[in-house]
Amino acid sequence: MAGKRLGKQTLKLSSPPSIISNASIVGPKEGEGPLAQYFDQVLKDDYFEEDSWEKAESKMLKEAVKNAIKKSGRSSTNINFMFAGDLLNQIVSSSFAARELQIPFVGLYGACSTMAESICMGSMLLDGGFGEAVVCATSSHFSSAERQYRFPLEQGVQRPLFSQWTVTGAGAAVLAEAGNGPYITHLTIGKVLDFGVRDANNMGAAMAPAAVDTITAHLNETGRSPEYYDLIITGDLGNVGKAITLDMMQKEGFNIEKVYNDCGSMIFDDKKQDTHAGGSGCGCSAAVLNGYIAKEMKKGNFNRVLFVATGALLSPTTTWQGESIPSIAHAVAIEKTIGEGT
Amino acid sequence: MDYIKAFVVGGAICVIGQLLMDHTKLTPARVLVSFVTIGAILQGLGIYQTIVDFGGAGATTPLTGFGYSLAKGAMKEVKEAGMLGAFTGGLKAAAGGIAGAVFFGYLMALIFNPRSKK
User: Is residue B117 a part of any domain in this protein?
Assistant: First the structure.
């Protein structure tokens, strides 16, 4: 037991699980964005041959999981557990997908931090020796999220310039206790922070302090410098949150500018696609991790990545009641080889 | 000339709405509700009728016009049927607009499926 915890928040996995396969699906708009070539499947129509956006979202998650399992070369009966969550009330996208998949299911809610949260839970389970392989997945859909969290689309509401665009997409990763990497070496579990942002359109600003807190905790507790990583990437802070994060990290004494990016800033071309401050949603970091990052790691362009998915833990009801937005960020260190650094 | 007047008045009301959305934290729904309320209050004070006389449909079509109809109907009914008219008159006067919105909304929902924004 001792030795696995490096500090209050950071865990070091004693037998680091390996990411053996990844899968990603995105909607048409994401498929026109700068990362289009990295995704396994781009939908032509965001109804995905279903009659509601909620069904389409669940289907994306299910298909991403199935594709990841197929790529892993295992059958779904050899996947011991599925860790998944999403943004919809009662995480129906995930549980409805799990109903079809019949893999023992652990439902998670971490809002847009779910991709990192599910990998954290899955890795610990494997490191603990409770299984041989697990699948971690999440999804989001612009239209199902928009009508749940903001306004019905039919109302045709104008979006403020600092608002972000919920990504239509899903991602899944199969982790196994044995494999050739990339490995999950460290996990930093975030705390819930709240800096009093009340505007549900300005989630990047609300989540940035949580990202900064988790990255700082990770660097301090592992003793690593930002340069140890080829890439430190936050989930869906967007352009506004990204700038705030850089600023706040500087104040914490870390200059991460050279290695830092944000999935929400990368997934859309804001000038051409009119998405304003970038992408958001569980599917944003999920598609970027399982598409762009996975493929670039395979090519050798990144060897060490700190993936920090960020979540805004609000509900429509708390927003209507004027509550501020609590946020969280979880960090996952992904490395091609183990045994270096700490 | 009527067209120009309607265009200017209607446009001016919409500009106020756009400014509120761009420069305040008011949600679109709150802007809509405030417009109805403001229209009703202005008519209650006898001001909105002047704007309608000048701008015509430019003043009655935006949501402030709905507030105007509610207030105007209520006041008329009070004169004709007593105080109970304050409760019945508004909806009577605006009934055409409300029923129309429900009917056409339902019709459109039958014909079309919602699509994501591009």
Answer: no
Residue B88, CA atoms < 13 Å, CB-side half-sphere:
9
CATH number at residue A258: 3.40.47.40
Kindly report the nearest CA distance between residue B41 and chain A, in angstroms: 26
> Which residues of chain A fall below pLDDT 50?
341-342
Domain boundary among A149, A176, A203: A176
Q: List A85's β-bridge partners, or say none.
A: A138
CB A235 within 8 A of CB A284: yes
Is the complex ipTM higher than 0.90? no
Q: How far is CA B32 from the centre of its chain?
A: 9
pTM for this model (two decimals): 0.91
- Do the beta carbons of residue A55 and residue A192 sit within 8 Å? no
Structure token pair of residue A217: 């905790």
Please report whether residue A3 resides in a domain.
no
- Cβ separation A158–B25 shorter than 8 A: no
Contact (CB<8Å) B29/A154: no
Predicted confidence (pLDDT) per residue in A95-106, tens digit: 999 999 999 999
The predicted pLDDT at position A25 comes to 98
Q: Do B116 and A151 touch (CB under 8 A)?
A: no
Which residue, B83, B52, B92, B84, is CA-closest to B68?
Answer: B52
| Residue A280 near residue A112, CB atoms below 8 Å | yes
Q: What residue numbers bound the domain in which A285 lies?
A: 183-335
Interchain CB contacts (distance < 8 Å): A and B: 24
The predicted-structure confidence for B33-79, as pLDDT tens digits, reads as follows 999 999 999 999 999 999 999 999 999 999 999 999 999 999 999 99
Inter-chain touch A143–B114, beta carbons under 8 Å: yes
CB-CB neighbors (< 8 A) of A199 in chain B:
25
Contacts of A157 in chain B (CB under 8 A): 28
pLDDT of residue A198: 85
